[in-house]
Amino acid sequence: MKRTMLTGAAALAAAALTLTACSGGDDTAGGGEGDAGNAENVDTITLAGWSLATTPEFQVLADAYNEQNPDVTVELQEYDATEYDTQMIADLAAGSAPDMYVLKNLKNFVTYQDGGQLLDLSDIEVGDEVNGVDAYTVDGATYAIPYRQDAWYLYYNTDLFDQAGIDYPDGSWTWDDYAATAEELTEALGGDALGTYQHSWQSTLQGFANAQDPAADVLSGEWEYLVPWYERIVELQDAGAQMNFGAVTTNSVTYQSQFGTQQAAMMPMGSWYVATLLAQQESGDAEQFNWGFAPAPQLDSSTTDNPVTFADPTGIGINPAVDADVAAAAKDFLAFVASEDAASALAEIGITPAITNDAVTETYFSIEGVPTDELSQFAFSTHEVRPENPVSADTATLQNILSDAHSAILSGTVSPADGIAEAMDRAQSEVLG
Amino acid sequence: MATTAVDAPAAPAPPPRRNRSRLTLRNTFIGWTFILPNFIGFAVLTLVPVVTLFYLAFTSWNAFGQANWIGLENFARLLTDGTFHTALINTGYYAVLHIPLTLAVSLGLALLLNHKMRGIAFFRTVAFFPYITSIVAIAVVWNMLFSPDSGPINQFLMALGIDNPPGWTTSATWSMPAVVLTSVWREMGYYMLLFLAGLQAIPRELYEAARVDGAHAIQRFWNVTVPSLRPTTFFVTVILTIQSFKVLDLILVMTDGGPGTSTLVLAQYIYRKGFEENDFGYASAVAVVLFFICLGLTVVQFLLNKRKEV
Question: May I ask which residue range the UniProt record assigns to the signal sequence (chain A) (predicted)?
Fold first, then answer.
């Protein structure tokens, strides 16, 4: 009896192993390459998205496409926003993923690409105006089409600047200027608000450092260049011009509340916050005040004409398990995604599209409430966006090590120099060594 | 079947045997139908993943395609992985603080709430309440209580005249004790309930006899309550040990392993390696180590318990 049970269990387990081992990889042949499918045979293609009720961009793309192609419907399949990649990886491995899926961040792109889960899209015509294509290009082949390209700006509250009697940012700031102004603001505002607010994410500091610092190279594991960046923010914390990291994490402070309820006069944040702030001011979740956004401060004055900032592009790729007809239809949709029409549709709802030409800029700034001053327009239309992370199998591990260093340094457990040195040791022994 | 039963008396010896074997078969079949739904659930949701995990621990696998067999490489990597060592030490540290503290607090509570008095149901409910509250809510509220500058705990300590109260979750030294305190507070109600059940099973005559012999309260506690509670204490300790080594959710929400790696535990390390870094083979190897730690400790506890019983 016992023996039969054991044999049964072993057989079951062996079956499961064979199933899990065989589900990926080999079935890449089904899709597009070679035999050109006929898109006309398809009337519905599916696309993954997250939090559909509060993230309208997927529906906007689907509707805009449907308007031009009434015969094809793009059906959305909803995923959880925070567990998006985990759920998508599971669905792809199980063969139940939608025809097309969004690459929510660049960090996991390598997992999908290296794992053979993205169709080669090199034959889709993408204009030079589309930003972020390079990030999805591996060995000359493109694996996803970007529709959205955020950028990080410096948001500022003009009312608080006026109250303090300090000049607004003028687009020529370095990080030292920014830090000095933050301290001046804090003093002048006398407790009404702090000079600046940098959220607890490692991006708010490392993202800029990695994009702007010529010495920056995340994959090398040589991270000494981060030390002065950390020293600057630790000084800001010590001077009381920036909320303490411990206070942010223990009180679950949100960046929307800090800037939206005028607790801080400045805030470096991504371009998505424009739409959020407008919506919150309208709903009453944020107070009514005047604000604008400026290019992010730079490492030195050499880049102020074309400010360097960072953010990952958001692209859409095709699941290689689809048949040739569906692949052809999906490619047609992705060609639309890369077009100016799609960009304008996205700009209308406050999303920063991958194309920011004059027409798109005009659409964006015609939204009611968007600050229309020259500097905000300059910040939107003129910048060089670098990806937050390099595409490599080691990125996620190195980022986790850097994240530990980030919390250790900012909570004051170690000095910036010691914290970074420790992180470099870990990178050497656990990843690179 | 009915005809067989009717025909049976005609042939004297064999039929009863055939009947019996048929009965056995039927009973076995019925038995299996009772077990099967549960067993299938167990097999699909627990047994297969666990066996798969053991296989994956010897491979390099990123969720797609073939898992490559690499033998003991993952385990060799564990020997030199500094962060794994930190996580292992942190997990041990958590368990060493958490197990005795929870035992003491929940037993104390149970003794306190084992009396007949007014509103006893209310107090028991209050003590049990944290256990059924959402972990995220608990983590957020306790984080605020522990806040170094504005949190009520440090304000209270400062009012008592302590000039430099701990930084709690923002300090590498105090983050683990802070997490343990929160966790003890959350779980004490559940273990209190187990101890209460144990206490109520102790025959009253034992206490009466002890009283007649002139034993005072402390002697009655050590010589009657403690020995009578031994099966409950054993059960609670085993469960507590396994729970402590598996701790994840509370730490994930309260400190996310930080500051630095001061509260990084094995379960979170497994999550990081698997779901954040897509290194499922290595994550499985860590999970196997965690499995054997839990198994080893449980076996040791059973052996110790057996020796005491003898």
Answer: 1-21
User: What are the residue ranges spanned by the domains of chain B?
Assistant: 82-307
Model confidence at A8, pLDDT cuts 50, 70, 90, reads very low
Distance, in Å, from the CA atom of B151 to the CA atom of B174, rounded to the nearest integer, reads 15
A214: pLDDT strictly greater than 90: yes
Domains A8-121+322-356 and A152-309+390-432 share a fold: yes
CA distances from A237 to A186, A266, A368, A371, B204 (A): 11, 14, 36, 29, 63
- H/E stretch holding A152 reads strand A152-157
B74 and chain A in contact, CB less than 8 A: no
Q: Any idea where the domains of chain A sit in the sequence? A: 8-121+322-356, 152-309+390-432
Nearest to A266 by CA among A245, A287, A241: A241
Give the whole-angstrom CA distance, residue A320 versus residue A100: 9
- Rounded to the nearest angstrom, the gap between the alpha carbon of residue A117 and the centroid of all alpha carbons in its chain is 21
Strand partners, A292: A156
pLDDT digit string (tens) for B181-234?
A: 999 999 999 999 999 999 999 999 999 999 999 988 899 999 999 999 999 999
Measured distance CA(B223)–CA(B244) in Å, rounded = 29
Give me the interface pTM, i.e. the ipTM: 0.84
The conformation of residue A428, written as its DSSP 8-state character, comes to I
Looking at residue B16, its pLDDT comes to 58
Domain B82-307 belongs to what architecture? Orthogonal Bundle (1.10)
Mean pLDDT in runs of 10 for chain B (310 residues)? 45 59 90 91 92 94 86 93 95 96 95 87 90 93 91 92 89 94 95 94 92 90 92 94 94 92 96 91 96 94 84
Q: What part of B 248-267 touches A (C-beta under 8 Å)? A: 256-262, 264
CA B290, A399, B253, A418 torsion: positive or negative? positive
What is the dihedral angle through the alpha carbons of B281, B284, A80, A247, rounded to the nearest 10 degrees?
-110
pLDDT in tens, A141-168: 999 999 999 999 999 999 999 999 999 9
- As given in the structure block, the two tokens for residue B115 are 């009396």
Determine contact, residues A340/A48, Cβ cutoff 8 Å. Answer: no
The predicted model gives A220-233 an average pLDDT of: 96
Contact assignment for A247 to B148 by CB distance below 8 Å: yes
- To the nearest whole Å, the CA of A366 is away from the closest chain B CA by 40
**Collapsed DSSP state (helix, strand, coil) of residue B59:** strand
For A247, the closest of B80, B149, B256 (CB atoms) is B149
The domain covering A8-121+322-356 belongs, at the CATH homologous superfamily level, to: Periplasmic binding protein-like II (3.40.190.10)
- Of chain A, the percentage scoring pLDDT greater than 70 comes to 92
- Beta carbon pairs, A and B, within 8 Å: 134
DSSP track, B130-175: HHHS-HHHHHHHHHHHH-TTT-HHHHHHHHTT-SS---GGGSTTTH
CATH class as words, domain A152-309+390-432: alpha beta
